[in-house]
Amino acid sequence: MREIKKQGLDMRQELFTYKHSDSKFWKLINAAKGNQEAFYKLIYHLSLDELRAFRREFKWVKLWTKEHSKIIREANREDFTRPIRLFVISQGYEYYKEILENPNKLPLNITEDDPHIITGIVDKVIKEKYATELFDHTDPQNKFWKYIEEAEHKDEFYNLIWHMSLEELRDYEEEFEKADLKLWTGEHYDAMGNIRSEDFFDDTRRYVVSQGYNYYMDVLQHPEKLPQGIDDGNPKLFYGTIGRVMMDRHGDY
What we know:
The chain is an all-alpha fold. The longest helix is centred in the C-terminal third of the chain and has 16 residues, at about 165-180. The protein has helices spanning about 10-15, 25-30, 35-45, 50-60, 65-75, 80-90, 95-100, 120-130, 145-150, 155-160, 165-180, 185-190, 200-210, 215-220, 240-250. Helix 3 crosses helix 8 (about 120-130) and helix 11 runs antiparallel to helix 15. It has 2 domains: about 10-130, no CATH class; about 135-250, no CATH class.
């Protein structure tokens, strides 16, 4: 029986949590002072897993309250919610806390191309240093499909992805979701016939991805070929196995 590796704190929690002002997450952001070039130099040495954890933490930073949302809405800046949020985080911990506690100080004139938004630099470094190691469901030769196409059933898939780090598994799961969401069209939904529960539709889309690139592309281009009668007990439905490995090997999602 495999030895199960439990981590009291994963890398994200230990190093890149936004919840502590002295975490590596905030130290790097504070040091950059909203300068993209400086941030690039500060994070270039990070490993792929560290960069993945850093990027993911940006998404999890708590900022919006009902009051923040009200101010954005009343200023008619709802289309700019994302850049405003990223700008606030990019200015460092003290500024972030100030805006969190004082919604009326929200910088409402921020746009997507603001030069003081540094979050996109993480993706830039990842692509420059680790392009060949990334998951990409749009490439039939990518390792995303390799693991899927080598597995005949869930247990084989489990063994094939067991070696992955927690951050790698999280990225794999996200790429799986990107692939299956492309099957969420009106034509595919209609092809479900009378069985249109959201759970069945989720299972069916994920089953399609689990059959490999060629089958996936065929169903993507021909919605009428969407399979019927798929449920979460199907041995060729791999999506949930990713979460199983996260918990069994790393003790976390």
